[in-house]
Design goal:
Blueprint lengths: L1 E3 H11 L4 E4 L6 H7 L6 E4 L3 H15 L3 E5 L3 H16 L3 E7 L15 H5 L5 E4 L6 H13 L5 E7 H5 L1 E3 L19 H13 L3 E5 L1 H5 L3 H11 L3 E3 L14 E4 L6 H9 L2 E5 L5 H4 L10 E6 L13 E4 L2 H14 L5 H19 L13 H12 L4 E4 L3 H9 L8 E2 L10 H11 L5 E6 H5 L5 H6 L5 E6 L4 H9 L16 H7 L3 E5 L2 H13 L4 E6 L26 H12 L2
Parallel strand pairs: 2-3, 2-4, 4-5, 5-7, 6-7, 9-10, 9-12, 10-11, 12-13, 13-14, 15-16, 15-17, 17-18, 18-20, 19-20
Antiparallel strand pairs: 1-8
Length: about 575
């Protein structure tokens, strides 16, 4: 039976199991919206700006493990969406983004709201398509979902000319996707897995370094089994938080630029480092020639292009994290241990315990001004680590990563690779839409929240009771921190002096607005926020001079951690020693 291309698009989505679309209509995609009017089984969430549709799709995908879907129109709608596509690309998030396009006969004529969507998004997607014939809609959409979710997950873009959506054609639906040029490897090489098993059995000071790939592969159970079997401590990247429980005795928590002292020291002194689903990002490694200098490095990743890209590894294993970890566990059980490794690891655990005792995460308490770390600690305590936590980007993001105690995977959502300010609220909408009955908390900064605060309207109209905690330090805090420590307190273009009034803005959008300015008010306000069955914005006015520590300065090794803000006298002495004056 022939039907309009727009109807075919919706039918394809339904066959892919899609139940939710985040979007914003416009002329080029109006045929789809007209078809959606009486199409059953698909919920549409209307966002206020197109980037929010992409971020919401990211949140849905990360919360469910399924492909997130967004739909926007042509021209500026697609250019607005690019940030979300690049964010998903960097963090390996499976989304399929549909954009409208001018009719095929007008492509290249500078028609109204025309842009080269395919060209613009090529570097920001895992793959993209321009549909030129209605009969290709089914095969292309089938391939788009397959590519997005398999191998290393990522965003796929499908550009839809308006005439393709209007013309009637037959739906062609391939039951199986076969792509000769795309065949991800899921099972690691048995010989390499055996090499890795031998290395781990004989290791005296091993560390597991875990990234977001473990969460994408749903490999948290295998990770925990491996860690407990071998008694190897575990450190996670920013994207890997939740893959291993924060309060597990073997947890080192996060490593890298703002990671814990003991995680960075353990990695530096390790003799075998096993990277699982991580890509040796510069925020993790610091100066590459000083990263894990004594370690034999094993790298497990489904993306072969990530292996030895930044750090040369000794034992590469290309495959799905879950399958490879299962095979590695089995291989370790077959290896003979003379007992020397176990004895040496007792001393290793003792050393790590000393590092933890010497340099725990800490901050100075104040009775007069709210410390942002305290807010996160109390949020963690009140939610017992069970909330779905989303963040924007900035200091608040690092404090949330450091002080919230995660118990489960798919409970932490942040922009890691791209560092997208404004990510928090729209992503939280996607997470909330995926799990209507769960508590979703967006920890944001006043600078980051301002970039997409209009999505409060979406939260209200779509009945998404997201709770937002604004860590309000009246400016771009991370920039202020760098200007303070690196640029000799030459503060420039960082202040956001109390505009807008977040309580009034929240109320203007139909949400609940709260504000606290004293430490004694924090817990009661958090309790009220968490018990309110509506979208809430809690404006927490914090110490604007508080910095995120530890901190590894740009170009430094992870052992060069700054653990407290240097005094002016310390800086002056350092400068005099460098200049000779």
């Amino acid at each position: 039976m022939k039907q309009a291309g727009a109807r075919i698009v919706l039918e394809c989505l339904k066959r892919e199991g899609v139940d939710l679309i985040f979007g914003l209509p416009g002329g080029a995609v109006l045929p789809i919206y007209d078809a959606l009017y009486d199409f059953e089984g698909l919920r549409h969430v209307l966002v206020r700006q197109e980037a929010a549709a992409g971020h919401a799709a990211e949140g849905y995908a990360r919360a469910t493990g399924k492909v997130g879907v967004c739909l926007v129109t042509s021209g500026p709608a697609c250019t607005n969406l690019v940030t979300a596509l690049q964010d998903a690309m960097m963090d390996s998030i499976p989304i399929v983004a549909f954009t409208g396009q001018v009719p095929t006969h007008l492509i290249g004529n500078d028609a109204f709201q025309e842009a080269d969507n395919v060209g613009i998004t090529r570097s920001a997607t895992k793959h993209n398509f321009l549909v030129k014939d209605g009969k290709d809609l089914g095969p292309i959409i089938r391939e788009a979902f397959h590519i997005a979710l398999t191998g290393r997950p990522g965003p796929v873009h499908v550009d839809l000319p308006k005439d393709i959506l209007v013309k009637e054609t037959e739906l062609i639906w391939p039951e199986k996707v076969v792509m000769r040029s795309y065949n991800p490897n899921y099972d690691g090489h048995p010989g390499q897995i055996k090499r890795a098993a031998r290395a781990l059995v004989r290791a005296r000071k091993p560390v597991l370094y875990v990234g977001g790939g473990v969460i994408s592969a749903d490999a948290d159970a295998e990770l925990r089994e491996l860690a407990e079997l071998t008694q190897i401590p575990v450190t996670t990247t920013l994207m890997g938080l939740g893959a291993f429980p924060s309060e597990h005795p073997l947890s080192l928590e996060m490593l890298g630029m703002h990671g814990t002292y003991y995680a960075n020291m353990a990695v530096h002194h390790s003799d075998v480092l096993v990277s699982v689903g991580a890509r040796f990002d510069d925020r993790v490694t610091g100066r590459v020639d000083a990263f894990a200098p004594h370690a034999e490095i094993i790298h497990i990743d489904i993306d072969p292009s990530s292996i030895s890209k930044n750090i040369k590894v000794d034992v590469p294993i290309v495959g799905d994290c879950r399958r490879v970890l299962r095979s590695l566990i089995d291989a370790i059980k077959q290896e003979k241990d003379d007992g020397g490794g176990r004895e040496a690891r007792k001393a290793w655990h003792g050393q790590i315990a000393e590092w933890k005792a010497a340099q725990p995460l800490r901050y100075e308490w104040s009775d007069d001004v709210i410390k942002p770390q305290y807010v996160i600690q109390e949020l963690s305590n009140l939610t017992r680590g069970e909330a779905l936590v989303v963040t924007g980007v900035g200091q608040h993001q690092m404090w949330a990563a450091q002080y919230y105690k995660f118990k489960h995977p798919r409970a932490w959502f942040t922009s890691g690779g791209l560092g997208t300010m404004g990510y928090g609220l729209p992503t939280a909408m996607g997470v909330q839409a995926a799990h209507p009955g769960r508590l979703v908390v967006n920890v944001d900064g006043d600078g980051s929240f301002a970039m997409n605060s209009q999505e409060l309207a979406t939260c209200f109209t779509e009945h998404l009771p997201v709770k937002t905690v604004i860590i309000n330090n009246s400016g771009h805090g991370m920039v202020r921190q760098w200007q303070r420590i690196i640029y000799k307190e030459r503060y420039c273009a960082i202040d956001l002096p109390g505009i807008p009034d977040w309580v009034k803005l929240a109320e203007a959008y139909g949400c609940v607005g709260l504000r606290v300015t004293k430490p004694s008010e924090v817990v009661p306000a958090l309790e009220k926020m968490l018990s309110t069955p509506a979208p809430v914005v809690l404006d927490v006015v914090v110490d604007k001079d508080e910095c995120v520590f530890p901190m590894v300065p740009a170009g430094g090794a992870n052992t060069d951690m700054i653990l407290a803000p240097p005094s002016r006298e310390t800086r002056e002495r350092a400068e005099k020693s460098q200049t000779g004056f």
